[in-house]
């Protein structure tokens, strides 16, 4: 029987091209249950989901003109979680499976190569995997509510589509923007990822955000922007400073009503320029909030989508061998890919799920790895009245985390700190 295969969506095309021997773009979502996880039952749950989520059980293949995803011959084997989050996914591993399913004590975690999906799609898969596991272990019936899909339904075409192609504008926006200040540090030679988690009360975050008339994302981005500005001011005189911008992914499903499970997000770089003067924390948060309101619109994002879609549709590009495309995309990525921001803040506001699941799920988290160009990243997920702020780095210096979490405490938001490095 012929294997199913899928074109990479518009956002996914870049990730195989820019992968290196020590880095690829990946992220993790996880849930902590009230009791230890049974690996055998989790394996059954994963196998049961394969017909419903075919685009997740795939391997990365290299064609003559493009990379593509192909139905994997190898089942995704549940593994014991080990070492540290988001250990390197090698090309050899990706040729077998582009997804890992891991368990450790009470925790279920899934790690995705970013060409598969984005944070929203990954969250849906994790919720459905956990739902099926709970059904097998406890005999409960999990209704199709929130992020839970009908496991017996044939995958609708809209879940598998490249929604970028459908929503691109006729004209493309320019990609040009001024370079942002980039953090630097001493790389850990072992490739270790240091993960520092700040656990805060969601209500306290919301109260502060509402006080200033902004969202939680804008609040956290403002505090992060202030923290990075503080680091830059100690290293450079004001006249030699660069803008400090936070890269924030925008889930385009909310703007266009898409139900795709593949990538459908674009990033906005928002922040401030310290050369123009000093900012209070409130001013930074409001500045970022207004920038998000101005640019996260269907019309503006359609122009950004077109900037990605139009080049891949050009016949001169389509006929170029993939090896040449890799060189070109690497050059483009080095010049404009990550230079517009200092680091990411990616916020999954919550995981809506049926009440029957909430009785068994105590905690949920989202972790994105460091990018290729900069060493720090931040990801956020709220669940059960708590917000988990995960700051990951591949350098030894912890100054950014110290400044960021200390500032939250100064603003009246208590933070409990956890870290995987002693």
Number of domains: 2
- What's the oligomerization state? single chain
Spans of at least 5 consecutive residues whose pLDDT stays below 50 are none
Shape: globular
Structural class from helices and strands?
A: alpha+beta
How would you sum up the major sheet?
7 strands, mixed
Task: Name the CATH class of the largest domain.
Answer: Alpha Beta
Percentage of residues in helical conformation: 25-40%
Q: Tell me the distance between the termini.
A: 52 Å
Q: What pattern of helices and strands is seen along the backbone?
A: EHEHEEEHEEHHHEHHEHEHHHHEHEEEHE
Count of helix runs: 15
CATH architecture of the largest domain: 2-Layer Sandwich
DSSP E strands, number: 15
β-strand amount: 15-25%
- Please, what is the average pLDDT? 93
The CATH homologous superfamily of the largest domain is named Nonribosomal peptide synthetase, condensation domain
CATH topology of the largest domain: Chloramphenicol Acetyltransferase
What is the strand arrangement across the widest sheet? 10-9-11-13-14-8-15
